[in-house]
Amino acid sequence: MFRFIAIILGIIVLSTMSIGIIILGIFAAIIGIIYTTITGRRPNFSFTTNPFKAKQRQAIFLETVFVLMGKLAKADGRISQHEIDHVEAFIQKMGMSAEHRQEAIRQFKRGSDPAFDINPTIQQFMQHCGNSVNLRQVLLVYLTVMALADGQLDPAEKAILQQVANQLGYSTAEFNRILDMVLGQAHFSGQQGSSQQRSSATDIADAYKALGVTADNSNQEIKRAYRKLMSQYHPDKLTGQGVPEDMIAVATEQAKEIQVAYDLIKRQRGIK
């Protein structure tokens, strides 16, 4: 008798759980339809990260960065000492493991071969990492920083960056906005926090560029732009999405430059 009651209770519990799962699925579907209707994008309901998939994304991100860096370095026909030094500094800044360093150099050499076709590499990146806005933007920022390593953006380098940006889903206007942001952020490279008291017209103009805003934006809009950028460069978020841990230092450096730029705007506008 007791066994029969236990079986009945078990069936009731399982039925209740199944109904709950169905209801949850319907609710998620409704939310997805609303989200897609409003934004035009499909929602991502992934709450867990498969460790194998995370490792795969990290390997693909590493390969893509250095293959495209090699392509950029050879874009003008020769790899300058500035570009070689930048890649070495880039690797050292990250504190790469010996294995990652060896792989990075190998991928850089592949990309620097004039006959190498970068399209399959970008397609692979989009297949495995393209659903992350952060990864796409961080990749484009890393490459732009590399292109500017010698202090100028060669037309051939810009053409490759534009090609990559288009394949990553960015319009020409969006690419130019990101390019301006990187140029603006570079103005504050190596500066520490709000201790820098420079506030020339050029400094302030570059500070706005660094945040992707203009002087016409409201204080609230500038705060939102700053918080969004800082969120994009958050180490935990980037690691979780597929940026190798030993490449987070570069994103941290970009975040510092954004912070200095925002501090300058705050002082200039009296933002609390």
From TrEMBL:
Q: Which SUPFAM superfamilies match?
A: Chaperone J-domain (SSF46565), TerB-like (SSF158682)
Transmembrane intervals = 6-35
Q: Where is the J domain?
A: 206-272
Q: Which Gene3D superfamilies match?
A: DnaJ domain, TerB-like
Q: Which InterPro entries does the record cross-reference, listed alphabetically?
A: DjlA_DnaK_co-chaperone, DjlA_N, DnaJ_domain, J_dom_sf, TerB-like
UniProtKB keywords = Chaperone, Membrane, Transmembrane, Transmembrane helix
Domain of life where this protein originates: Bacteria
Pfam families cross-referenced by the UniProt entry: DnaJ, TerB
NCBIfam families xrefs: PRK09430.1
Q: What is this protein called?
A: DnaJ domain protein
